[in-house]
Amino acid sequence: MSSDAAPTTALDVRAALLDENARLAELVRTADHGTEIPTCPGWTLTQLFRHVGRGHRWAATMITERVTEALDPRQVPGGKPPADLDGTVAWLRESAQAVLDAVDAVGPDAPAWSFTGPKPAAWWIRRRLHEETAHRADAQLALGQDSDLAPALAADGLSEWLDLVAARRGRELLPEGASLHLHAKDGDLGPAGEWTVRPDGSGERAGIAWEHGHAKGTVAVRGPATVLYLATLRRLPAGDPRLEVFGEPAVFDAWLAATPF
After folding, report:
1. CB within 8 Å of 60: residues ≥ 6 apart
2. How far apart are CA 190 and CA 176, in angstroms?
3. What band does 11 get if pLDDT is binned at 50, 70 and 90?
4. Contact present, 204 and 168 (Cβ < 8 Å)
5. At 109, is the pLDDT very low, low, confident or very high (cuts 50, 70, 90)?
6. Residues 166-209 pLDDT 10s
7. Residue among 229, 220, 11 nearest 141 (CA)
8. Domains defined for the chain, CATH in brackets
């Protein structure tokens, strides 16, 4: 599978980015900005929302300036929010819109830099969407809330994350001959709710390949799509009681240790 491909569900990534961003902005409006974020050690809510907002503007700037290497985030225009709360919330929401505006300005198929090689500019919408889904979940967990991420969005986030892992080579992420099967229990996801991951390549090209569909794995992990997604990103523990693990749990533990977000 390739992250250049269309999302694995009929997800409207543009609308989803704005919706997820609006939900994070509402948390920023109502929560204590000094709240510590356990899933991002050393961060408070202030650092989290600044990271997300500046990251959106970072991507938008690289798209519009057609850069060929990573831009220093400190050079991003408007990269710091205003001091007042209303201004901060508006800054965060404008940051997500800036990504869409940048893609529209250059065209969705225009080449754009990415950390896994050149991509169509529209690739960045989905990438920034799932940066948002992960960090909104971070904020909710820190505030003692369960993530309310929609199953289809969580499933697409898991697929997008596997694309990123597959694009990075040079490390053995699964033992030779082992496989990992993830199965979302949400009944309406169809094939988009199952993933099979296997080793692929060797040496400098060592990595993984993955595909949708039902298969028997060395280890299989079943649970709600949102819990699977957050556990795979190490936002929830592998031993979360909502997850069922079959086969060899050590393979899943090794996978998590080798693939930090």
Report:
1. 95, 98, 99, 101, 102
2. 29
3. confident
4. no
5. very high
6. 999 998 999 999 999 999 998 789 999 999 999 999 998 999 99
7. 229
8. 13-148 (1.20.120.450), 152-258 (3.30.1050.10)
